[in-house]
Inverse folding.
């Protein structure tokens, strides 16, 4: 069987590329006879085979929207020349299906990690009325580019119930959809001895560490909220430190000037689990998310962090005071709520224990098996 995945550049350490990498690793481990190709956006054209995976990179101009239009055009031409039993595209990179003539015996699945229309509407909420009018064509573009897979795909995978509801609300389409929440590698993300890990990472012992992880979209990801809430926590506990991993420093330096912040532009992927294990708190302060849980939330839960989520992130599986904490204002009262639970050992441990139990149902193997069965349309 030949399966082709369409998505982001595997060199980029981001949610979509890691999602596909996890799925491919599951297939390689459990079904080594399946032949895998990954067609992706790239900074150069090229084809290579590495660890049994065939990669096909498509060079694109760094122009907003245009690069995705051109990518879909070239992907369509690629599939017209090459046959795969199964094609799994992701997000807006399913537009190539428009006008594509599916080959005999071929199965096509598109995965929605969120919906562009509500994402941009949320993003535009920070704009002035004039700016909203100026950027309004983006809403039409996002509506049109995500629509073709809903009709052309044999199956639609949604990473959360809210994504499925958004598809219903925006497109009125309810057919062929299934919700598969994102899995997490429980062998890699797990509790470790915090004292030892802090020493390995050259972090101060005896400090209370919060963690924020996010590469792009720092406003949507709520970096300002994480910093604001952390500032309130720091006022009450001078031992608090916030580790920030991922965002572009030039775009976020005004937020990162606080004395309690430890900033890392990039951390090797194999070291990321150590930072989760070293941290006491994890902040998911997003204004919009598709995943529920998102990959970073899953990793934090599996690592034994006390999870702090914004209400607007709508993580679905997270319940306030049960397997995490949900905050709304990011003020002194929310800081007091976080610290009171952190200092109450019994309550904190019960929340973390329940969090780890809940995320155990989303292990990489359980998720991979379910996802692959939907891809190929039969039990494995």
């Amino acid at each position: 069987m030949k399966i082709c995945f369409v998505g982001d550049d595997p060199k980029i350490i981001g949610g979509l590329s890691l999602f596909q990498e996890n799925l491919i690793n599951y297939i390689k481990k459990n079904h080594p006879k399946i032949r895998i190709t990954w067609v992706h956006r790239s900074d150069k054209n090229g084809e290579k085979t590495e660890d049994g995976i065939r990669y096909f990179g498509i060079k694109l101009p760094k122009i907003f929207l245009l690069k995705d239009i051109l990518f879909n055009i070239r992907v369509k031409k690629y599939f017209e020349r090459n046959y795969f039993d199964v094609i799994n595209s992701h997000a807006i990179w399913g537009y190539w299906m428009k006008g594509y003539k599916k080959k005999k015996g071929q199965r096509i699945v598109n995965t929605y990690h969120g919906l562009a229309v509500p994402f941009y509407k949320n993003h535009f909420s920070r704009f002035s009325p004039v700016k909203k009018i100026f950027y309004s064509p983006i809403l039409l573009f996002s509506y049109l580019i995500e629509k073709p897979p809903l009709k052309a795909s044999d199956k639609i995978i949604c990473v959360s119930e809210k994504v499925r509801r958004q598809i219903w609300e925006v497109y009125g389409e309810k057919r062929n959809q299934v919700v598969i929440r994102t899995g997490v590698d429980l062998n890699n993300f797990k509790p470790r001895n915090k004292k030892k890990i802090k020493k390995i990472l050259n972090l101060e012992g005896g400090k209370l560490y919060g963690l924020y992880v996010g590469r792009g979209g720092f406003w949507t990801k709520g970096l300002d909220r994480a910093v604001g809430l952390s500032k309130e926590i720091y006022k009450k506990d001078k031992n608090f430190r916030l580790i920030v991993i991922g965002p572009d420093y030039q775009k976020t330096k005004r937020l990162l000037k606080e004395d309690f912040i430890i900033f890392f532009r990039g951390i090797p992927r194999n070291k990321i689990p150590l930072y989760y294990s070293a941290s006491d708190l994890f902040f998911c302060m997003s204004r919009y998310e598709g995943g529920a849980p998102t990959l970073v939330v899953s990793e934090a839960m599996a690592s034994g962090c006390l999870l702090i989520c914004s209400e607007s992130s709508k993580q679905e599986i997270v319940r306030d005071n049960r397997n995490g904490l949900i905050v709304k204002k990011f003020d002194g009262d929310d800081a007091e709520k976080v610290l009171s639970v952190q200092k109450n050992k019994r309550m904190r441990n019960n929340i973390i224990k329940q969090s780890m139990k809940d995320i155990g149902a989303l292990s990489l193997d359980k998720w991979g098996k379910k996802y692959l069965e939907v891809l190929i349309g039969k039990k494995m």
User: Anything to note?
Assistant: The longest strand covers residues 35-42. The two ends are 13 Å apart (CA to CA).
